[in-house]
What we know:
Elements: H1 6-9, H2 22-33, E1 40-45, H3 51-63, H4 77-84, E2 90-94, H5 101-110, E3 121-126, H6 133-144, E4 150-156, H7 164-167, E5 171-175, H8 180-193, H9 200-209, H10 214-227, H11 235-242, H12 247-259, H13 262-274, H14 279-298, H15 310-320, H16 325-342, H17 348-360, H18 368-383, H19 390-420, H20 423-430, H21 432-438, H22 441-447, E6 451-454, E7 460-464, H23 467-474, H24 476-490, E8 496-500, H25 503-508, H26 512-515
Parallel strand pairs: 1-4, 1-5, 2-3, 3-4, 7-8
Antiparallel strand pairs: 6-7
Helix pairs in contact: 2-3, 5-6, 8-9, 9-10, 9-11, 10-11, 12-13, 12-15, 13-17, 14-15, 14-16, 16-17, 16-18, 18-19, 22-23
Amino acid sequence: MAYQALYRKFRPDTFDDVKGQDAIVRTLNNQIKNDHIGHAYLFCGTRGTGKTTIAKIFARAVNCENPSDKGPCGECEMCKRIASGNSMNVIEMDAASNNGVDDIRQVIEEVQYSPPEGKYKVYIIDEVHMLSKSAFNALLKTLEEPPAYLIFILATTEVHKVPITILSRCQRYDFKRIPVETIADRLRELLERENVEADDEAVAYIAKLADGALRDGLSLLEQCISFYYGQKLTYDNVLKILGSVEEEAYSKLARALAQGNVPTVLEVVNDAITEGKDLERFCSELLWYFRNVLVAISTDQPEVLIDMTSDSMAELKEIAGLLEPQVVYRYIRVLADLENKIKYASSKRVCMEIAMIRMCKPEMETDMDSIVNRVHNIERDIKNGVAISEEMLSNMGKNGATAKQNAVNREELVKKLEKALPDDVKQCVMAWDQIKSRLNPFLRTFANKAVVTTDDNYNLVLAFQDKTAMEAFEQADSREDLDAVIADIINKKVNIKLTLHSGTEFSALPDLRDIFKGDVDIEFTD
Length: 526
């Protein structure tokens, strides 16, 4: 028999085998037992969390002659036919390569015919967000009034790209990232079945790298097994094959950053490159490391939120004691910016080294986080007996003056808008979070993408960068819902304009919620 990848070989056949999605499994199982099966389902979530797997199990279960709490029996004729791919009752379609209106019209023609055997005809459409607008429109009517024997299961990793008209006609299930411990337990179970020895530390590290996707964890595990075939899988071996960096390197780097030690920081980066480590993964893991540092600074019991050994936790707490929260915020901001750029950079090393130098030298930037970082460095140097130059203090004064001027400008802007903006617009701005909470879940998702701003005529404006989000609010029923919620909260009707902007324009728009935060005291009626 031809070799099968681990994620295919050990793909769950029953609901009992599915890991990490207990609530979804229980809901679907109850629907089958009580014969309350819907006609359209939307499975959304990140890759490798079980969307397609559960869709296939559900498709077999609804057609199974002897379904149980575990789902399909796997023994009846229908189960065997579907599992072997010889049944016309279950049709899988990849919307990434079949995304045109003609492809959907063909589906619509096929669904007119009832299944020759079994109870239901099930269409599983993967990556449904890649369908064209005309294809979605063609699907809409059938999705709204399907035959009694028809079930659609739509799966997507980017639910925000699915039109609201489709969303509102489906039962939506959000697949969560699978916990690290759950992935690790599953990997240990499969290693035992494959007769492969592995250290617990190695398995735990692979589970952590999987980032909530069990399929990714299986792929990484398979990569390690193949390289060290016939050998015990150790933590060091996993680090070598996956191009990861040891935790000690991150601790060394963090200490050097706290001291502003550029040579040591660049030395750590150079060592990682020399050992063939992947710089994208290095950046991603370093970002996660500083997230852990921030958690250690911000909470009394970081062990609850951070999964690591007691020795590593003690080291993390020690580093957290060397840094101010605002300094770590700045590190995370610089690394997040680097993570977006390094994917497409032709000179990844240069990008990495520049980012590291920026993190060591906050004087290269003039934002508030950098100023705080510089104050932290001066306090550190004074504590260590290092002389502070007059030039450094002078530059700090200039940046402090800039920050003070920004505060004055903001105060002037607030005063101007307080006089010019109509009361109903102010009330909407101040109550925007309350307004959003009253919207249906679909509109609320798109409302989170809007900037609440104003135009030259001081109208209330919802500005969008995402065209799909703006189109959701342009629909008549959506506008009616929004107007009704606003009227219910502030007892007034407000004229709202919708605008679409490019990235640069969008970033420059003033958000009235920030400007009036804490500046205006308005009472609302509920």
